[in-house]
């Protein structure tokens, strides 16, 4: 319901606030699924840092969404449906949720709990998994977060948005004027 409201509303400030609510709901869902580390990251990045960056962007631009033609909306809808169908197709051969015979429970978990101290030398099992076994994955996540931050800083710091608004080339609806 929150996602539908995000799509329908044209006021970008309201969309920003609803996005924060959606992130908190997603974090709650991750807690229910016993993924507390992911929930903490979602709450901090999704409901915290992202909202601050979006509000900063709104302060430099306008609060109204630019309305696009129907052809662009249709193309976007097709891309979303194709991507969603591909993602759903990719999950069809996954084991059922909580299946005790899933490979993660029969092969990975016993190995991590029994061998991590000997293989890695770190007594904390969570730290050994995140820092060593999943080290490349954790590094990739950090690179994505830093790349996003650099991209936002480059866009906001370029001054082009501020110059257009200062010169009066952007109206209250977010549309460029000639």
TrEMBL record:
It is a multi-pass membrane protein. The chain crosses the membrane at residues 12-33, 39-62, 74-92, 143-161. Residues 101-156 form the MrpA C-terminal/MbhE domain. Keywords: Cell membrane, Membrane, Transmembrane, Transmembrane helix, Transport. It is found in: Cell membrane. The keyword Transport applies. The keyword Calcium does not apply. InterPro entries: CPA3_Na-H_Antiporter_A, MrpA_C/MbhD, MrpA_C/MbhE. It comes from the Bacteria. Residues 2-61 form the MrpA C-terminal/MbhD domain. NCBIfam families: PRK12504.1. This is DUF4040 domain-containing protein. It comes from Natronospira bacteriovora. The lineage of its organism: Bacteria, Pseudomonadati, Pseudomonadota, Gammaproteobacteria, Natronospirales.
